[in-house]
Amino acid sequence: MQRQWLDWQGPLLPAAAAWLIERHAEGRRCDLRAVRCVLPGARAGRVLLHLLLRQCAERGLRLVPPQVLTPGALAELLVPGDSRTASTLECTLAWMHVLREARPEHITPLLPSRPDFYDWPAWHDLAGTVVGVVDELSAELLALRDVARVAARMNMDREAERWAVLERLEARYRERLAREDRICPHERRREVIAALVDGATPVDPDHQLVLVGVVDLARVHRAIVRAYGDRATALIHAPEHLYAGFDADGCVERNFWSGRPIEIPDEQLVIADRPADQAQAVIRCLADLRGAYRPEEVTIGLGDEKLAPTMTQAGQWADIAVHDPRGLLALHGRPFRLLQAGLEWVRDSRFFPFAALIRHPDVEGFVRRLLGKAKPQAGPAPEWAEGKPVEQVAEDVPFSAGLEGQGSKDSKGDVAADDHTIVEWLTVLDRYHTEHLQDNLGSAWLGDEKVARRMQILHDIVAKLYSPLVGDRRPLTQWFEPILEVLRNAYGHLDVHAKAISDQRVANTCIEIAKNLGGLTGAAPGLQPDVDGPTALRLVLAQLAGLRVPEDPRSGQIEMLGWLELHHDPAPVLVLAGCNDGAVPQAVTADAFLPDGLREHLGVLSNGRRYARDAYLIEAIRRSRVKCTFIAGRQAADGEPLTPSRLLLAGDLERLPARILRLCDPNHARRWALPYGAPPSGATSGFRIPEPGPAVEPPAMTVTEFGWYLRCPFRYYLKYVRRLRLVDDSAVELDALQFGNLTHDVLQRFGEDPSIADSVDPEAIAKYLDGVLDDRARDTFGARPLPAIRIQISRLRQRLVAFAPHQARRRADGWKIRRCEFELPEETYLQIPDQAPMRIKGKIDRIDQNVRDGSWMIIDYKTSESGHSPDKTHRAARGSASQWSDLQLPLYHHLAAQHGYTGPVQLAYMNLPKKPEQEALHIARWTPADLDDAVGTARDIVRSIRAGRFDIMGDFAARYQDDFANICQTRVFGGADDLEAEA
After folding, report:
1. Cβ count within 10 A of residue 520
2. Model confidence over 202-250: pLDDT tens digits?
3. Domain 686-727+814-983 is of which CATH architecture?
4. Is the domain defined by 266-325+553-668 classed in CATH 3.30.70.240?
5. Cα separation of 213 and 236, whole Å?
6. Which of 61, 75, 483, 493 lies 20 to 30 angstroms, CA to CA, from 502?
7. Is the link from the previous residue into 585 a cis peptide, with omega within 30 of 0?
8. Which parts of 615-691 are beta strand (E)?
9. What distance in Å separates the CA atoms of residue 490 and residue 471, rounded to the nearest whole number?
10. Is 575 helix (H, G, I), strand (E, B) or coil?
11. Closest C-alpha to 275, from 672, 685, 622
12. What CATH number should be reported for the domain whose range is 2-79+195-251?
């Protein structure tokens, strides 16, 4: 191995390109075909080739490019697999079967809680972890028995037991592979590497090996490099006088770099508070450049990759385009989320997964297309792999296929769009749920036939989208094509050349998913579990979790790179965010299988080795840039405090106290209230309470409207003039109004049934009410209502049982039910002196007559926990006086007289008690003067409404549910059980 020094006064890759050209240029040509250049990442290789081309062009040379490899690709080149070598998926599946079939005592050391035997995804996750650990050990030429032996020597009894179990299970794993004519890829690698070390298998003598800034190698890669002997060269990005900092393979010497001071000047350091502030600090640094550098001369570095979405969003605000060369994570893309959203619903057809699913924009698009509301794109649909086996998908570029049922044409099995167009299906969905709170969507639809039909249509359309995932159990890979069919259903109309960038990303994501699934179809059949569609989808999503979708760079974009990519980036300006411990330097603090102490003794990549590597990298990066800024955060996105990078504290000891104080002082942390590029705030707030409109003349008013106006005229305006309603799908139990309506329905049936209404038998009354409640609840909420509703129905049943003795005694005392849910006739008016009368609408819950003296009682049912008297609910204290807060019973008294209910008339609440011994009837004690005052108040309200007076009241009573709190910019906290129902 030869070592060559490239001084870090400039970036590494331009110097490496020049070094290669100087040694291989001959005449008008630079022939590098016999050179294998090894770089840590694929992007570094692409940049090197670009620089070689540019420098050769500047020198007038014709380039024959070298072979560019990563260390892993170099190992694959020298140890190629064959048809018998197990793929990563096959290794994972083999381990999954072995772990799943192992005895419980073998699993306990690996996993405290054993998954269910049929929980394939959980076993797959455990197997994936084991495969990852085995891969890492194999790269260091270690076997499982080596780990068990070292752990025992270190007196790590639990670790030793764990690895001894894994060693025994590994034998079964190999047997499982052999049964399918497969061999573990690590066995083949160990054989080849052993032959290389012994010299029995020489490497290709016609090739040279050049390691470009590769400062950390696993043992397997070191063995391959050493096999090249003098034909291998390490290009080390450092001045030659630091030769003691690198070993014979060109990798960093841990002791040298762990103890070397790192001086980062204060002017290069920025402390920001939250992740959003770190992103804004980056944007400010870019703005301070004032256009002195082109976008390709500037790089944004991310020590913590979780900052990427925040950084991208900040760039969009500031009109700065950033490019992540690694590509976008597929799991953040629309297709991945479409599959995730459908997963729970396909497995269990319940309302809440369905409601979340229907809100996915691409499900909405599918519904619109199937109903013919969206026109298909002009021209022929893009081609895709429709009808081809999934393994051929990787050969095709466009992801698209014709959408069955597109447009308005009706076909067998499709919904006729022209007959059943749904304008706002989300509103229909929310209203349906608000009324019925139906959990299980597999049963019959409830309520109004027209609404139920709409719900059925919506349900059937979504079922059509995910229908490929329905079917009997089958081998895993046989589900790949149905999964792709779901994507074709949703995205078959999109093309990689679509106008919208978002649509291009969707199409490219589908292509990458198809390619990856196509590469997995060759898994041995005997290793594949027989699973249903949802389980297969969970396994596929787990397999694709790390998939990235590459995006071609566009002109004017700034590259956004991860920490380990920055050393090989040639841009002269770097702004690095996320300079916090655990990210820079990288560290792993919780490894269930290989804790750091065990890693140290095994010689596997440990935190100490990572620190030495990152200490060198930050020094080489800082010294080779024209401008370099390091940004450290104080808080994570969840508010957890962050520790600044130890590399920022590795400088001169005399200046260390000042640096610590600066890093820890919150006053030094930069914060920005608004992102750079945000529009300036206006002179007035954009969150103003809307002004009510002009005066209105309602044709009629309900009795309950008067109470709303008394509580808050503005809320009355929103509810009854603008007719706003709160409709959502978040409810999991009946609100006060629904609970009251259910109660009224049951009691109405009782009062209108002559066979039971006159009964004086409490048990007969209770039995009757119990049966009516069962029927009404089943009709409204289905046979399997939500658990909270079942509890509420049980509570209502208890109250009805307690009500029965009160009703029996009342009838025995001579009170007979004359009317139930008496609807005021159309000719019911409230006379307004000097103005036109106001027609009044409303329903009186119950009117009783005493058959002994002919007196009347107007009754309003109540179901609240408080059991307040009529006076308490109708009057509210305003300073030292008492004012009307509701006019329901006084208006019933006044209006009922127009229809013959005259003479002695009492007003009362009938509160359904929890227990029979509790009081049920609460009679109002108002005088005739009180009732006249209430009617006068009602007339004043009518005049105010006609005059358009809708002032807002800030002290809205907490016992009433405030659906308009957001509009009124208030919040009301109160117990749900004490909310007054409007029934």
Report:
1. 20
2. 777 889 999 999 999 999 999 999 999 999 999 999 999 999 999 999 9
3. Alpha-Beta Complex (3.90)
4. no
5. 6
6. 483
7. yes
8. 627-633
9. 20
10. strand
11. 672
12. 3.40.50.10930
